Amino acid sequence: MTEPTVAVTIRYFAAAAAAAGVDTETLDLAKDATLATLVEQLSDRDGELARVLKRCSYLCDGVAVRDMGKPVSTPQTIDVLPPFAGG
C-alpha cells in the first residue's frame, strides 16, 4: 500500500536558488512531514544547499514561519529566503 503524501511547492530565492540549482520545484512528502522534515530532506541532497538553508527564513503561503515543527499540507507553497543585504 502506498503511503499518503502531500505535494509542496518550494520557491527558492537568491543564494538559495543558486545552491538548489532551480528557482521552483514540487516535492511529495510524507503526510506527517513538518517544515523541519522538508529542510532536512533538502539538506541531505547537497552540502552547499545545506549550508545555505541553515541561514534561511521560511514563508508558508506568504506567512513567516517561527515553528519549524509546523506541518506542511497540500497545496502549500514554501518560500526559502536567505538573508538579504540592503534595504
Give structural notes.
This is MoaD/ThiS family protein. This protein has 87 residues and is an alpha+beta fold. The protein has helices at 15-20, 35-43, 47-53; strands at residues 5-12, 24-30, 57-60, 63-64, 76-81. A five-stranded mixed sheet has the order 2-1-5-3-4. Strand 3 and strand 4 form a beta hairpin.
Short description:
It comes from [Mycobacterium] fortunisiensis. The chain has 87 residues and is an alpha+beta fold.
Task: Provide tags for this entry.
25% helix, alpha+beta
Arithmetic mean of pLDDT: 92
Beta percentage is 25-35%
Low-confidence stretches: none
User: Count of helices?
Assistant: 3
Radius of gyration equals 13 Å
How many E-type strands? 5
Which SSEs are present, and which pair or pack?
Blueprint: E1 5-12, H1 15-20, E2 24-30, H2 35-43, H3 47-53, E3 57-60, E4 63-64, E5 76-81
Parallel strand pairs: 1-5
Antiparallel strand pairs: 1-2, 3-4, 3-5
Helix pairs in contact: 2-3
